Amino acid sequence: MIHMEEITDLEIVKKHLHLFTGNILSFSRELFNVTGRRNPKGWEMLLHRIKRDDPDFLPAFEDPNDLIPQIWEGGHWIDLAKRLHRQKPDITVGGWEGRVKAARLNGALVRKTKDEYVIEHMQTPSLSPEDLWAFVSQASEKAIAGKESSRWADVHFNEGDKYIGIAFASDQHIGNKFCDHKRLKEDALLVAEANNCFIIHAGDYIDNFVVDKPRPAMKADIPPSAQWKLCEHYIDLHGESLFAIVAGNHDLWTSGLTDYDPLGKLASERGILYHKHELNIRAHIGGQKYHLSIRHKRRGNSSLHPARVIKAMWSDGEQDFDIGVVGHHHTPVIENFTRHGIERWAIRPGAYKVLDAYAEMLGFAQERPSCPMVILSPYDRQIQAFSDLRTGLRTLKMLNGEYHGIAEGNNLGE
Question: From CA 235, how far away is CA 205, in angstroms rounded?
Fold first, then answer.
């Protein structure tokens, strides 16, 4: 073993250059085995820095990152990591995931834009301590300068002169015996198969009673692990129509107890906008821009006047939105209101869980499954809101010249 205090890292590399065969990973492991210093990843990072600062110091070597494409046209990021692992199996799938995330951060890797819309929003990947410090420092400088936070995103719909429909669904409570799973699937497929229609989810996909009822939850007919599998399947039913998710309190119980956010991971793998609490979306449609503000919960809720919380969100909140959406309470409501002489819309999506023992105890009536939607004009600021998805889809098709009468209505589940 070499006495580390007697030799620098650079001298160690020079001393053992004869071990270098062109494979930086093998050389990094050799340096670790010989010195016991750093770790293989640390040596690899050092060698990259040496190569960057003095290109002639090291002979040409094989860089595994060269295998990462500049544009990924496949599915989830994990699929790319698995493909790279098959190409170079001496790096684990997890190792490739880290390299892919780093490439995404520095702009060396981008996902091929979806044909129907483009999202300008980036998620922060896992980083080395040095890079993380630099990233946090840069992020704090931006925050201090008043830059917009991760709650904001611009979405550009690439449909030219077409009217765009956006549906809203929340409080699915998948796996609960009182969830209308049949209607849930029907609505997801209707949106996925419709032209120019997209959807935003506002949380509480599953019951996930791991906080106050952990033992009964694990012994339930459909425990949380199965609920998450059903949730993933439900999300995938939407195809590329689902472009934004705000988590609900039930969804966040897992991340509240652990350092793992299953819903955030599902969204990240699919390139879907995600925030735990609130998203503000500027939807660019033709020459128009619409501001949507979506939360799962907010203070100021009233069971007697469900739309009041959204009006309060506009008045005492931070955002000048055109459409406000809040989930959590299972009563569906669509109501217009005026602020600064402009018509706004308050939307409570309701729920697919039509019965609830706790709500019944408090005197609430049985609800209907609902998925409201809005239609946004590309020509002028015009918002049409519908409490029923099917009516909205028929109107969208008529506006875009695609509706063919009664037969078309039958294809909308009627």
Answer: 10
Domain ranges of the chain: 4-62, 65-144, 152-410
Between CA 396 and CA 392 the distance in angstroms is 6
Per DSSP, which regions of 100-235 are E strands? 110-111, 117-120, 152-157, 164-169, 197-201
Distance between CA atoms of residues 110 and 72, nearest Å: 6
- Global pTM reads 0.65
Query: Which tokens hold the place of 335?
Result: 């109501």
Measured CA to CA, the distance from residue 321 to residue 299 in angstroms comes to 17
Residue 106 CB partners (closer than 8 Å, separation 6+) = none
For residue 153, what are the β-bridge partners? 281
Collapsing DSSP to helix, strand or coil, 352 comes out as: coil
- Reported as a single tens digit per residue, the pLDDT across 131-179 is 778 777 777 776 655 445 678 888 998 777 899 999 999 999 998 888 9
Q: Which CATH class is domain 152-410?
A: alpha beta
In angstroms, the Cα distances linking 150 to 36, 143, 222, 250, 273 are 41, 10, 34, 22, 10
Q: Are 174 and 208 in contact (CB under 8 A)?
A: no
Show the tokens assigned to 321. 């939105």
Task: Report the DSSP beta bridge partners of residue 199.
Answer: 167, 242
Task: Return phi, psi of residue 312, to 5°.
Answer: -65, -35
Burial of 24 (0-12, 13-18, 19+ CB in 10 A): buried
The pairing of beta strand 288-295 with beta strand 242-246: unpaired
Instruction: Report how far residue 94's alpha carbon sits from residue 48's, in angstroms, rounded to the nearest whole number.
Output: 20
Q: Is 397 helix (H, G, I), strand (E, B) or coil?
A: helix
